[in-house]
Fold this sequence. Notes:
Strand order of the largest sheet: 1-2
Number of domains: 1
Radius of gyration: 18 Å
Distance between the termini: 26 Å
Shape: elongated
Number of helices: 4
Number of strands: 2
Helix content: 55-70%
Low-confidence stretches: none
Largest sheet: 2 strands, antiparallel
Structural class: mainly alpha
Amino acid sequence: MINTNIYNYINVLDKAADAANSRNEILSNNIANVDTPNYKRKDVSFENYLEQAMIGPESLDNRVAEVNTHLSDFGGMIYTDHSTLSYRLDGNNVDIDTESAYLAENQIRYNALLEQIGQEFARYKTVLSN
């Protein structure tokens, strides 16, 4: 994390990319355990926490600056999904098609976050080179 206000957006995007990377590992683990008896799928919850922190009447810059000051509190929470019913006799609740779709969605999100970080740095480079 870079401790200056100019990098507030980059710091928040970086934390979101870290959470997406963690989700990628968890989803891959779910897929690897698709045939493990009594395995319960896991996931990472991050977006809800960030979304709640970004709600407010002040400007986006002020909200991002506020989130940036408490960024260490925004870790992805790994949870086990016990609520999903298992239609399998072995007690496993991982559906390979659903997990693959979540994995593809997460990869798109991760790539978009990296693209946004790159664009932020490109803006800084443009400003500094003129």
